[in-house]
Design the sequence.
């Protein structure tokens, strides 16, 4: 379970974009925005590629945030990780919505 939760959080963070040095929730909000824009693009491959390229340029900051979260969680118990994961969901509706996708 510990690895599953960590993987979910890291996967979410790795996909986050446009953080501008902000927090985890800002990354979740931008990722959710990205997903919705890509879904709205439908089969328009050019639009999808354009969206992916636009979000890629700032993705690194959120990747770093995900790496930091992973590092912070590595020595925690499963219970501690569950609490932190729940806190992320409680504090950030966008993160909670992402986990439901």
Sequence:
């Amino acid at each position: 379970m510990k690895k599953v939760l960590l993987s979910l959080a890291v996967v979410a963070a790795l996909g986050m974009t446009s953080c501008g040095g902000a927090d985890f929730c800002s990354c979740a909000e931008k990722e959710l925005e990205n997903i919705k824009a890509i879904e709205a693009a439908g089969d328009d491959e050019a639009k999808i590629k354009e969206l992916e390229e636009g979000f890629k340029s700032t993705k690194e900051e959120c990747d770093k945030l995900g790496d930091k979260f992973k590092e912070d969680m590595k020595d925690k118990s499963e219970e501690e990780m569950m609490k932190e994961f729940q806190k992320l969901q409680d504090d950030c509706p966008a993160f909670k919505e992402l986990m439901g996708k």
The chain has six helices and no strands. The chain has a mean pLDDT of 78.
